[in-house]
């Protein structure tokens, strides 16, 4: 069995995940990266996107992280996120409607473009995890 490390994913609503994993792949501001046991210490910003983690033999879990920060140490990784979701908790129709609404708001000058862009990124992450 591969070496594991402790992973904690914490959202404003509480602890989303707390357990041992072999690996997690998340999206940073510069692209995707993997975290394994004994990773060099690092703190960095995470982007809105999907993640997947290997929990055991052929046990892969995936979901979305809607921004935040990750602190990595050799034996423990802590992700503080604005929100985290498992695929089964996402409503595909609602995500598609949010995507369309955000795209319209980006085109309309009376709306805050940065806020609409953030909503678009969240909806795309939600849709992509369900369509994999």
Layout of helices and strands, plus pairs?
Layout lengths: L4 E7 L2 E8 L1 E6 L2 E6 L5 E15 L2 E14 L3 E6 L2 E2 L6 H16 L5 H18 L2
Parallel strand pairs: 1-7
Antiparallel strand pairs: 1-2, 3-4, 3-5, 5-6, 6-7, 6-8
The CATH class name of the largest domain reads Mainly Beta
* CATH H-level homologous superfamily name of the largest domain: F0F1 ATP synthase delta/epsilon subunit, N-terminal
Radius of gyration computed on alpha carbons: 16 Å
Which outline best applies? elongated
Measured distance between first and last alpha carbons = 27 Å
Based on the coordinates given, report the CATH architecture of the largest domain: Sandwich
**Helix/strand/pairing category:** alpha+beta
Low-pLDDT sequence parts: none
Describe this structure in a few short sentences.
By secondary structure, this protein is of the alpha+beta class. It is built from 2 helices and 8 strands; from the N terminus they run ββββββββαα.
